[in-house]
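The following block was generated as part of the benchmark described in Methods. Ligand: glutamic acid.
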Amino acid sequence: MANDTTGRVRERSFRESVDLMFNRAVAVMDLSPGLEEKIRVCNATYIVRFGVRMRGRIQTFTGYRSVHSEHMEPVKGGIRYALSVNQDEVEALAALMTYKCALVEAPFGGSKGGLCIDPREYDEHEMELVTRRFAYELAKRDLIHPSQNVPAPDMGTGEREMAWIADQYHRMNTTDINAMACVTGKPIHAGGIHGRVEATGRGVQYALQEFFRHPEDCAVAGLDGGLEGKRIVVQGLGNVGYHAAKFLSEEDGAKVTAIVERDGAIIDDNGIDVEALHNWIVSHGGVKGYAEGSYVSDGARVLEKECDILIPAAMEGVINRENSARINTRLIIEAANGPVTAGADEILRGRGVVLIPDLYANAGGVTVSYFEWVKNLSHIRFGRMQRRQEEARHRLVVNELERLDRYLGDSWSMTPTFKERYLRGADELELVRSGLDDTMRIAYQAMREVWHSREDVPDLRMAAYIVAIQRVALSYREKGL
Ligand code: GLU
């Protein structure tokens, strides 16, 4: 237990938190000596300081790309733009990428990048200059490369930045036929895939749907039934929080009773219209002034509001030693990376709160990134070969049913929408969602199998780490390490 100078228990840094969670898992595993250390440590962190001439002077920026594990290549992980980016954070996030990819069987090692910048301070042209220069610095060291290191969006970055990075890489590697696969999360017209933007939020929805398919697991959290009517508090209405909240309320009948944002929170026990509030935030820069529900300026307190499911979907460390005893929920699903510190994790476990861990809960992003990367390497969109053939085969069935319909007269008829729905072959978006749903179900089942079959594994996080570490260890062993 680490103490600060006043004798209080010190909050661990993000990287220390991830290491502690890793240590809890390996303590009950049987890894060969030295392998544990090899897996835990971050292989390399590259720090670059570069200058960009703008506004009449040269401005210097600091960027990072950390490679945690190369047991599989390419290594994968987003690039974050925030003033708070630092080495500890990037290394923790890179480690989480290793475990995340292993857990959802995305064939990648773990990596992460970051740039110390407040994107709101710069216009689009300036952001492009900075992004291209950062991409140049990384690409010339193979830290952006289709077969070695493939970045993606993270906090503060999105499709726009990924398109610049892809183009920059392409300019530097004009004859590389796989140049498009050097980065994922690109816009659809620049080599992207349908469903990538929504992917992490969609993954959170699929994760919860799978959790609620197991009544015994719900019972551990003191919950029953399905998602219908469950009260949800969401922290952060960025890309991940927005999509998760939207799908859970619009498609699963859950009630989003509070949304916490930078400038305060909106509470509405009848359920917030997520789309309307999101539109308000986009045009007003915050939740303040939104007409429906009630506004509370102290967002941190709203995080402690009673609910069935709490979804922290923004920054790391928001649930910590200070507030974890007051968190009033039964189930936390970590849509962000590292929102619960190791200290808070311990306190919450002690209180019987069930946690669906980040390395599983937010793996939807990298899963669909994997599909995008495969699409880029195969140079063909998913479904292009099969779709019409599938439709033709379905047409045969429908023709027979129509014959039966005529024969049976009034006593039986086809459901009106059946024909149209059944005939339509799956497009890329449907295939992506199906692949993501399958991935989230299978990964959950692997975790719960360990959780329920071992007495020494009391929670899902420990189970998730065990599944992931076992897979990484296996791949090292197969390499002869
Ligand atoms: N930044 C996202 C994450 O933390 C996505 C990574 C990726 O798609 O490679 O998982």
